[in-house]
Design goal:
Rossmann fold, alpha/beta, five-stranded parallel sheet, peptidoglycan synthesis, 280 residues
Length: 280
């Protein structure tokens, strides 16, 4: 059973969790909207990637990391900054931590359908997300209104995690070609959903293979706004005037996570030692 929740207050940190560095794109939006909050970011890189695993595996890891963040860091809210973990496990977390404000992610198919003018959109996501019941429900709810091309981007998360710029460039070119034809003519996709938190980190590489007017949809800003709403409703927003802190934790190589934060967040972070890998 999970431990009893501590009693967080406005000074407690917000937990942000992903299988790797992709959730930094969500963390970037959170810190921009709430600069006075403390954040603890956990990258479960020793057990990644989630997108190519089964639901049981993802649920186990999500529960283990959440327990660590609650028990050891006293978080006041948790952002599951991973589409795969959200689809597989957030219902489990809601049942086990009913008092903890929880925010998850899902591919932005609804806003993409609202944005498209050609009636055609493409969804870039992991194979696990595209195979999930959650995505099937989104497709059923919104996909009937437009043409949707779903592109499983095998290997892209691994390439981003490895800072393999050449591999990223090759895979971005491949998957944008599969998402096509792209453009503003009938039958062409004019809107592309970035259905994994890693993908906004390489948006420039994706954009290099797209018309300038192509719309990219990612959910970092809406997730940050929802987190702020939940904290305000619970009277848990920070009242401090000084900038908040950021602590990075990883079940894998902490140096790689810090390198990623410096690259994509330009962040100064707390360099305290990482805990042992959750569930190890």
């Amino acid at each position: 059973m999970p431990p009893l929740l501590p009693s967080p207050d406005g000074s407690s940190p917000i937990g942000v969790f992903d299988s790797g560095v992709g959730g930094l794109s969500v963390l970037r939006a959170l810190r921009a909207l709430m600069p006075h909050e403390h954040f603890v970011y956990y990258a479960d890189t020793a057990y990644a990637p989630y997108g190519e695993r089964g639901d049981a595996y993802v649920i186990e890891r999500t529960r283990a990391v959440t327990e660590l963040l609650v028990r050891s860091h006293g978080i006041k809210a948790l952002v599951v900054a991973c589409n795969t973990a959200t689809t597989a496990a957030i219902h489990v977390l809601r049942a086990e931590y009913p008092a903890l404000p929880l925010v998850g992610l899902e591919p932005g198919l609804k806003p993409a359908v609202a944005a498209t003018r050609t009636g055609s959109v493409a969804v870039l996501a992991t194979r696990g997300t595209l195979a999930s019941a959650k995505y099937a429900a989104l497709q059923a709810a919104y996909g009937a209104q437009v043409q949707v091309r779903a592109v499983p981007c095998d290997g892209l998360v691994r390439a981003i995690e490895a800072f393999d710029d050449a591999g990223v460039a090759e895979l971005c070119a491949r998957y944008m070609e599969q998402a096509g034809p792209l453009g503003d003519a009938p039958g062409q996709a004019d809107t592309v959903v970035l259905g994994c938190t890693h993908y906004p980190l390489v948006r420039a590489q994706l954009q290099a293979h797209a018309p300038a007017a192509l719309r990219f949809i990612d959910t970092g800003i809406p997730v940050a706004q929802q987190t702020q709403r939940l904290l305000r409703a619970a009277d848990l927003l920070s009242t401090r005037d000084a900038p908040g802190s950021l602590q990075l934790l990883s079940s894998g190589d902490a140096a790689l996570l810090h390198q990623a934060a410096q690259r994509w967040l330009h962040a100064e972070v707390d360099a305290r030692p990482n805990p042992a890998p959750a569930g190890a």
